[in-house]
Amino acid sequence: MNTLGYAILSALGRKSYSGYELGKYLDNVWPAKHSQIYPLLTKMEEKGFLVHEIVEQVGRPNKKIFSITEKGKQALEKWIAKSPSDPIHRDEFLIKIYSASLLGEENSIKLVHERIAKLDESIASLSGKITEIEQMEELETTSKEFGRYLLFSRKYRLAEEEKAWCHWVLDKLKNKKIKFTVLFLAFAGRFSLPLDVFSWAAII
């Protein structure tokens, strides 16, 4: 089973979901398209990791509600006990900002401002989810909400940190040059030598 399968089992370990609801949950941990989720649900059910029941709806198509089985729980627990693989991070923005020297100042600044706008949206959404959980009187570490709280808090902090980095990038773009102070340790003492970014690049 691939990581998406275990992400599905992780969701169903909390509660039963429809395929659509699973897609919304997975957006927070392991984003996937419905064209990936539904075929995998069928395969996982065939292997006994989950089951489904049909829920009738008035005026709308009936929907399948999926639940984890005992075999699914055992598979999930075994997978959780293993060390995780190295994270895979793909971000088109990083490729573009890496090419800032080709974009030019105006386009680079526009790119970073667009990123900040998206980060602000994420921060607002995550803040709402965190506040909703924090309104509980207390949160046990054994609660199913505890994992959500950890996840949302991590994403919130990362978004805030990246937003601060974006403002740092804007500052550097507007200054047009970065100056470093490189400290060299010698036998007799320390020497301080300022180098601009282009000189430093030439040295290395």
TrEMBL record:
Domain of life assignment: Bacteria
SUPFAM superfamilies the record matches: Winged helix' DNA-binding domain (SSF46785)
Database matches in Pfam families: PadR (PF03551), Vir_act_alpha_C (PF10400)
InterPro entries: Tscrpt_reg_PadR_C, Tscrpt_reg_PadR_N, WH-like_DNA-bd_sf, WH_DNA-bd_sf
Residue intervals of the Transcription regulator PadR N-terminal domain: 8-78
Domain Transcription regulator PadR C-terminal: 90-174
Gene3D superfamilies: 6.10.140.190, Winged helix-like DNA-binding domain superfamily/Winged helix DNA-binding domain
Protein name in the entry: PadR family transcriptional regulator
